[in-house]
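Quick one:
INPUT:
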């Protein structure tokens, strides 16, 4: 016989409100734009997975997601050198990724201008008239 004692007495779910609301905000924008394909660079996996319910998603990250979903395509790549042609993406998101670039946490070199370089790479691939949905916490941008 196995006895299980449930002791969770929290009245509310434990969520990170910032990440929760940013995903809802970004999802609404992408749904409103009704894009045929969306590209995401390194955002949270659950957000990317939910996007596949409304559009085709190309996910680019240095770490494979290794999931099997309809409308999901992944490509290994770095935000400092995206495997995309100039001005080729009409809809792109990058939620809380750029501010980590240049810190060396993911094998990237230490670079105080990493965030700026990442932002420039997102601009490089964005097509004229395209939509970029990005969230980046930057306390101070280096000269």
């Amino acid at each position: 016989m196995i006895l299980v004692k449930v002791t969770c007495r929290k009245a509310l779910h434990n969520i990170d409100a910032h990440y929760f609301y940013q995903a809802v905000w970004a999802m609404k924008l992408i749904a409103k734009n009704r894009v045929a394909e969306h590209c995401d660079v390194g955002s949270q996996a659950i957000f990317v997975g939910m996007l596949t319910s409304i559009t085709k998603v190309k996910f680019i990250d240095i770490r494979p997601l290794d999931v099997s979903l309809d409308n999901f395509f992944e490509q290994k790549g770095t935000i400092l050198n995206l495997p995309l042609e100039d001005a080729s993406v009409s809809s792109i998101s990058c939620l809380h990724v750029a501010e980590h670039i240049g810190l060396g946490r993911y094998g990237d070199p230490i670079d105080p201008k990493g965030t700026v370089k990442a932002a420039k790479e997102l601009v490089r691939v964005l097509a004229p008239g395209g939509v970029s949905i990005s969230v980046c916490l930057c306390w101070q941008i280096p000269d």
